[in-house]
């Protein structure tokens, strides 16, 4: 587990990078946190794409939540 102070520092840096128009790739297990940071979401499933859409739609889709996020 990463210390909360490091997580917050990363989040602040990510916001600054995004504000500059630079795209980044975020690999995150916490779907709620990732939704706050991301514009788009891609969920990989055994080497293929299981979901590709806006970050907001990930948690709004009951099928995606049940299949990939266990929430």
Task: Briefly characterize the structure.
Helices cover 52% and strands 18% of the residues.
The proportion of strand residues reads: 15-25%
Name the strands of the widest sheet in spatial order.
1-2
Mean pLDDT: 89
Question: What does the radius of gyration come to?
Answer: 13 Å
- Give helix and strand order, one letter per element, not per position: HHEEHH
Structural class: alpha+beta
Reported for the largest beta sheet, the result is: 2 strands, antiparallel
Summarize the amount of helix as a percent range: 40-55%
What does this protein structure show overall?
With 71 residues, the protein is of the alpha+beta class. 52% of the residues lie in helices and 18% in strands. The protein has four helices and two strands; from the N terminus they run ααββαα. The chain has helices at residues 4-19, 31-37, 55-60, 62-69, and strands spanning 40-45, 48-54. Strands 1-2 form a two-stranded antiparallel sheet.
Detail the topology: elements first, then pairings:
Blueprint: H1 4-19, H2 31-37, E1 40-45, E2 48-54, H3 55-60, H4 62-69
List keywords for this structure.
single chain, 71 residues, alpha+beta, two-stranded antiparallel ribbon, 4 helices, globular
